[in-house]
Amino acid sequence: MHRAKIKEYFVSVQGEGPYVGYRQLFIRFCGCNLNCAYCDTDFSVSGDYFELSPIELFNLLNEEKMFRNIHSVSLTGGEPLMHVDFLKDFLPLLGGKIPVYLETNATLPEKLKEILEFVYIISADIKSPSSSGQNLFDVHEKFFEVCRDKNVFIKFVFDNNVTDLELKKVCEIAKKFNFELILSPVMKNNKPLVDALFMQKVLESAVSFYSKTRLIPQVHKLLDIE
Length: 226
Ligand code: SF4
Description:
Blueprint: E1 4-13, E2 23-29, E3 50-52, H1 54-63, E4 72-76, H2 84-90, E5 100-104, H3 109-115, E6 121-125, H4 129-132, H5 137-146, E7 151-158, H6 164-177, E8 180-185, E9 187-188, E10 191-192, H7 196-209, E11 213-215, H8 219-222
Parallel strand pairs: 2-4, 4-5, 5-6, 6-7, 7-8, 8-11
Antiparallel strand pairs: 1-2, 1-3, 9-10
This protein binds iron/sulfur cluster.
């Protein structure tokens, strides 16, 4: 059985997007295929982590009663789809009783195909060239083709460097697939890095391209919750 490097697992509050406020079990996988300028997540294998088989992780979570009273299991990272061989064995262990919520950078469409049937909600990022250093719009579209019939929303994290062209492109993609678009400002010290006026300008501009757009900051950071 495939083992995966897992940075941490914990129960907390979902702080992003339309499911904000729900109690979830988070499983954070090590490693990511991108290197975004604003990334503040520790998914490295340089510090502590667990190396577990699917059944070992499932038993641990069960023993620690982590499946109790949760809305869903959030697979996060890093990039959880880098661990698809592990997930193919782990997700069936949940027996379809607990919804699976995938947080992904939406760049690995072939990996997504392998576990799509087990996933209920997809929180999919679109990365702009100004944050990721590369143009990923085509690969994002391939990803969304794979999951177009699923319960998907798009998250777009922005800072002062976002351009109108990038914003327009993100809106065009969200519109093409009819997915809700969530704009999320980069946070620093638990506050948005950009000022209120700029956030309103970005929202106004995005809504003029695509009306199914909302501005939602990382609420867990505002509340100072992990
Ligand atoms: S995709 Fe997410 S986890 Fe990976 S580098 Fe970018 S922000 Fe960090």
